[in-house]
Design brief:
Oligomer: single chain
Helix content: 25-40%
CATH topology of the largest domain: Rossmann fold
Largest sheet: 6 strands, mixed
Strand order of the largest sheet: 6-7-8-3-9-10
CATH superfamily of the largest domain: P-loop containing nucleotide triphosphate hydrolases
CATH architecture of the largest domain: 3-Layer(aba) Sandwich
Bound molecules: adenosine-5'-diphosphate, magnesium ion
Number of domains: 2
CATH class of the largest domain: Alpha Beta
Number of helices: 9
Strand content: 15-25%
Radius of gyration: 19 Å
Shape: globular
């Protein structure tokens, strides 16, 4: 139940909440010795939006994510998350920020000796410091149900397929209800059917939890399923932006190369 907040300022449009920018990047530059990786990255991620980043391997997609969570400092440019400049945050502020951001690692990175239930309890007890077992059980079961794996609750990761492990990894990330999700190549290494399932799950999770997400991929099916908006990266910049359908019609060579791979 959400109260409709009284419009204090009559000038403010009703869509303010929807158009809220959660990540703002302007002119981001990151270089390593003799290697200018990000030259001029500019984008806004809006609340509730799925933004897909397409880019060749080694183009700096993961570096962008490291900047967002403050693991890397840009050499130049502005990067604010929830309105706060990441480069200016102290350790405590970074810790707070990272609690609001979920990652999906390529491997899923589950603890092999723990059951699915225990893997999911871990962030609740260690990160959120919950100790009400009833609340913990409820959240574990709810999130597992969301990824379609309630039946696997007492299994060990080694009893699960790669796709199932990925889904548990996603559930473990979502259980703390992050406001932003960063997916770094979520379907890499999975077969086409499982890739599709994971992509659909990413879309469902966006709808269910209203998270804002950046999805890095070169899987065009994943992009088609999950994206509200796609940006294409080349030589340290975003060179094109649009919906899947819009970009499909592009005559830019780099943009075309992504679409041609799948047709
Ligand atoms: N910590 C680092 N030190 C030096 N070079 C790095 C570092 N991290 C990434 N790079 C380089 O930056 C480039 C982009 O890397 P990355 O963001 O991982 O690419 P991708 O688009 O495949 O995710 C690569 O050339 C990589 O070698
Ligand atoms: Mg990468």
């Amino acid at each position: 139940m959400k109260a409709t907040n009284g419009n204090i300022s009559p000038k403010k449009p009703a869509s303010t909440q929807k158009d809220e920018v959660v990540i703002h990047a302007k002119g981001i530059k990151v270089g390593f010795v003799d290697n200018e990786v990000l030259k001029n990255i500019t984008f806004d991620l809006k609340r509730g939006e799925n933004m897909v980043v397409l880019g060749k391997s080694g183009s700096g997609k993961s570096v962008t994510i490291q900047c967002i969570v403050g693991l890397l400092k840009p050499d130049a440019g502005d990067l604010t998350v929830f309105g706060q400049n990441v480069a200016e945050m102290n350790d405590d502020e970074l810790k707070q920020l990272r609690m609001k951001i979920g990652f999906l690692f390529q491997s899923g990175a589950l603890y092999d000796s723990m059951t699915v239930r225990e893997n999911l309890e871990f962030p609740l007890t260690r990160v959120l410091k919950l100790n009400d077992q009833q609340e913990i059980d409820k959240r574990v079961e709810e999130v597992l149900d969301g990824v379609g794996l309630l039946d696997a609750i007492d299994k060990l990761p080694s009893d699960l397929s790669g796709g199932m492990r990925k889904r548990v990894g996603l559930a473990r990330t979502l259980i703390v209800k992050p406001e932003i999700m960063l997916y770094d190549e979520p379907t890499t290494g999975l077969d086409p059917i499982t890739s599709r399932e994971i992509s659909e799950l990413i879309l469902n999770m966006q709808k269910k939890y209203k998270t804002s997400s950046i999805i890095i991929t070169h899987d065009m099916e994943c992009a088609r399923i999950t994206a509200d908006r796609i940006v294409v990266m080349d030589d340290g910049e975003y060179i094109a932006e649009g919906s899947y359908k819009e970009l499909q019609k592009s005559d830019n060579k780099m943009v075309r190369s992504f679409f041609n791979e799948t047709t």
